[in-house]
């Protein structure tokens, strides 16, 4: 009787190539580091104390063996341990067997921590330069804490296999919802914001979260089958928000959910002039049409209204792939209402 293949089984030639690639001291150190964090060539050079050509040669071999992934952010390239096939075999059978007390590996981790500290300092410097703009925009609408609480209440406690945060910015949504997923990806077009997000996620200890630079209108081909896709304060920057929602819907798995948080319609022209907002908010009807065009059922529509006169309302919408329905009350049910909150 022939037994069915185990999901973790690998062809002999693939496994041999992976073992050969991993079976060298520097490459094994690189794999151990990339299991902890996404790193650039420069950062790996700093940690390993080796030249750029040598580090790049090792990385090339590991990419070719399918053990690590490479993705670009502007002029930089980031590397991380792959999360599929033979890479999982090496992660669970080789990297997991490494002794964390080994002096060489412990020294690598200390230098990795120094890299994380430098990232944090660079992120702090970026925010110091832009703090006035951030604070001015935040003062216009309800506190983020109120919006985040509404999102948590609406999404409930259900865990996800995979979460995608489009326009991740500082990575706050990944900090909030990443712990409930085994796979979490944040995508943003701005390398400076990705650097901020990377520092924040390092500090939060979310090692399983991946950050990518990319276009929301044309998501990378390898991003697919997400349980939850988040568009938090993103659509108002888009020339074609309907297209962004279409891309988000395309990468959902059957029964997956999309959550959109954005401004309700307003007349604050300064946001368009000074902060590049292309749209001054969205109505529930408009967002509902975006969902309907992509076979999604609007399950929740909620306004979070500020108590302060003249402050902006933030709206929360959740849609579900039509392959499954019923996890959320329909608009008009008790969860579809306005929340009044005092602006801090």
- Output mean pLDDT: 85
Helix content: 40-55%
What share of the residues does DSSP label as strand, in percent?
A: 15-25%
- What are the low-pLDDT stretches, counting only 5+ consecutive residues below 50? 325-335, 340-344
Number of helices: 12
Distance between the termini: 69 Å
The multimeric state of the shown protein is single chain
Strand order of the largest sheet: 6-5-4-7-8-10-9-11
Q: Characterize the main sheet.
A: 8 strands, mixed
Quickly give the structural class: alpha/beta
- The geometry reads as globular
The beta-strand count equals: 11
Rg, rounded, reads 22 Å
Taken in chain order, the helices and strands follow as HHEHHEEHHHEHEHEEHEHHEEE
Task: Describe the protein.
The protein has 344 residues and is α/β, with parallel strands linked by helices. The chain is 42% helix and 22% strand. It has 12 helices and 11 strands. The chain has helices at residues 12-22, 25-34, 41-48, 52-64, 85-93, 103-138, 144-155, 172-177, 191-204, 241-250, 269-275, 284-293, and strands at residues 39-40, 68-73, 76-81, 160-166, 181-188, 209-213, 226-232, 252-263, 296-306, 314-321, 338-341. The strands form 2 sheets. The protein has an 8-stranded mixed sheet, with helices on both faces. A 3-stranded antiparallel sheet has the order 1-3-2. A hairpin with a 2-residue loop joins strand 2 (68-73) and strand 3. Helix 3 packs antiparallel against helix 6. The chain is globular. The model is unreliable at 325-335 and 340-344 (pLDDT under 50).
Please summarize what this structure is.
By secondary structure, the protein is of the alpha/beta class.
